Amino acid sequence: MNKLTPQLQREHNLSTHPFYDLWGILRRRSNTITLSPGLLVFKHRGVSVQLPVDDIRNVKLNRKWLYSDITIGTESASYRLKGFNFQQLEMLLQKIQRTALGIFQHSAEWRELLAVVKRYQKGNHYFSSWEWRSLSQLVLVKQRLEELAIDADFISREGDSPIAQLALKLSTADVSESGRNHFNEQVIPQLLSSYETFFDRIESQPLSAPQRKACVTNEDHTLVVAGAGTGKTSTLIGKAGYLLKAGLAQPENILMLAFGNKAAREMAERISERLPESGDKLKATTFHAFGNRIVAQSVGVKRSLTRFAEQDNELRQFIESMLEAEISLSDDYKTKLVKYFVCYSTPGRCEYDFNAIEEYQEFLQSCRLITLTGEWVKSVGELRVANYLYLYSVPFMYEANYEISTATIERRQYKPDFYLPGSKTYIEYLGVDREMRTAPFVDQAAYLEGLAWKRKLHKQHNTRLEELYSYQLSEGTLEENILDILNRVQEPQRLRDTDTLLDELKNSGSSPWQGFIDLMLRFLSLFKEGQFSFSDLLASPQRIDMGRTQAFIALFKPVYDAYEAHLKEQKEMDFSDMIAEATVALQEGQFHHCYDYVLVDEFQDLSGGRGKLLKALLATRDNMRLFAVGDDWQAIYRFNGSDLRFFTRFDHQFSPAKMLPLDKSYRFNNRIHELSSTFVTRNPAQLKKEITTHVQVEHAAVQLLDIQEKIPNINLADRNQRKAEAYHQQIKRALARCQSRELRLNSTRRAPVMLIGRYRLENMRDLKELDLKALMTEFPLLDIQYQTAHSSKGLEANYVLLLGLEKGSFPSAKENDELIDLLLPEQEPYLFAEERRLFYVAVTRARHYVFMIFDSHNTSAFVEEIARMGKQLITKSDSLEIGQWSCPECQSGSLTSRVSRYDKKFYVCSHSPACDYMASACKECSSPMVMHNGIQRICANPDCQEVEIVCRRCGLGTMIKRKNNDGGVFYGCTRYRRGEADCCYENITSEEYECRVGTAKQHAEIMQEK
Length: 1010
Known about the structure:
single chain; alpha/beta; 6-stranded parallel β-sheet; 36 helices; 36 strands; 41% helix; disordered N terminus
């Protein structure tokens, strides 16, 4: 029973009316109602009832001429008591009302509600959804008061009761979620005004209006969606400072989390500098350090960190030693390992697994299509066929010329995929499914027509043709079908010795053995970080090569078991254990803390394991708040397990939630912003942002520098050396422009310049000899540093030079192995989505100017895209020709120039090897010579329109002027090579040649008009 005031502790008795008693003597209808502290006692139908006042839901009086009734209701019953004096019943009702109100006011729930009501009445408190739920209880209070007939007049007579007064005023709409939003919108301006001086001084520069609004917004879960240079860290510091200044938290109630040691140190330094009053109680820590503390507290001892966690080389050696041990102990394991290298070193995916040629090209670029004999092939299926033949010791030739010359105007010389000289058998690997359907981006009619031609050719010349199909790779029956062919053609087979084959793999120049160990190392880290089980992986959706997955897991599990046993024996843990074990400890209530607020930086980098840890932490206490800042345009760590869905679906992951923008950048100018934002938002999945910049300029702030402009003037015999020197000269050209600008500004200290490449400098062939110290000596006004694109994140410089922007380099063709993708968030459907964001990160490191240095003979698709942007955004040479010509074969790629080993320029499709179109270069302007009707090549440059007449006999050569022994002029094929087997003897008269040229020019004019 709650403690009541003295006046409510006195007993009150009420008896039935004397006339009612007299009338009811014989029927024994007299009654007495006794109101004792918190208890109402009476008789109902002859039975004594003791009713706690707290159980009373409503009381109604019914006035009659001589005596009156009272009806008392509870949740489950209703009692009608007759025969009382009406005035006495009114007095009783008032005492019941006072008693009920007194019980309310002395309850713990009422006291908690009182604190909420007082904050509401002051009108300067931002209510979270969790806090507002308490306020919404006022609707129930109002209902209870009305049922007890307690109105505003009664409350005013009885004295101060702010809860009851507010409850009677509020409607259901007032305490709804929309009511909360409306209330908070009124509160925000007051808070901004009250803490204006604080926000002016918390950082070296006053916080912007969006930063201030984010700081005072105090939702259950808040995500600040920032842009590059908009002040993410300043917002975090401002938020922490505001919580302390407003008295919403003490330093020990705030947990600040960062992803890396460097970021945590920088945040701690900012806290120490800007919030000295917090002492050492407010700290920034990493997820791993926080997890380690949770584990230590939960088990009572701090375990050591294994040396493998920070020494990849030692872990690599451990994995290799475990593999060697398994090989020596188990012949079965050895056989499985050899079969993995032969059959499963590359994911088994076919052309028709992809909807677009761009997707297939990306996949091919991520594969190492090198056979065990060191030969490059064009598809995964061909790789498997070649490796199976090698495994069974079957001699073969890849794409050797067919024994009969077949070259014509319409067709090149026929080169079957495989030739087995022992049995004189040709094998074609066909890219079709069981219904003989090709990939969507392949001309199915033309493909099947070519297949029919091949079959007819072999039948005509009585040569043996065997066929293999892509669907056999998908269904896992390729090896079986190869063996059937070998047996049918009586090809001798001998399975190679596994020990010899393993030795060859380990000693191979292409290092498949070391690549396999690296794969195991990455798989181990991600497997533990994501807290996976082997059953999880084997139950994965069928977007992967399940046979390969099973083969790899069979090899990986013994290594994993040995690793875990080693950690247990040494009583050590790795970084993944810190996250996983801390999550379990939180879920089981083994970690006690006093945190009310969790502030997280770079939220776009949150991984699945860290996300589980964060959710488990937030679930340990009521009303814990999450405040996170990040930029989805800078999400570049999927390869380490980061899951962008925590960011883009924040309101689904952490509910209820609010997302706020930071939309003004103080780093770069408007031109850099316009180019970079246009570029990154080509991916429609990126969140849309209306970012403005503090600095506005009229000129373009990005310049494209092609190294091919320099190569003609470099006198070096080695092509690679010429290319490296050309890069060096263009870098100096860009630096000279930076230095010139600093001279105009009369700079007194070195201006920071950031050279950014996709990889470490030593891994970039054309740039590894770059001498940064020498460059700083040559340009004394510049502070020149090199960073990889990933390591540049979080940094800034006056000028940025992007280097090595070439096909296969940036965007990187080194896509994750599909086995690694099993452990990562699902890949985005947009091509090169993460590489595009990484490029955005690199560009937005610059304050003033960006130089993009590249090779137009091997151009990055990103540079091609940027080269098509307007002159208000980029500066480039008028002669720059990248991205100008579409591939006439696949229609979606563009023709990109290459240089042969003999320094002869030619063009290939940017989707090579998925599209194998090639074109020679025009001898007049070096543009592509595109074949038309199989009889002429016309220069793609409309200002040139040079024409070459194709040889109609071989279909490959070009007709050129020659002289006979009498000095007469005729035209012969360029493939005339006396004595050679493929010599072409085609020749035509000058008159015929001129006629063909005239026809070709007419065709060129028609094409130009179109």
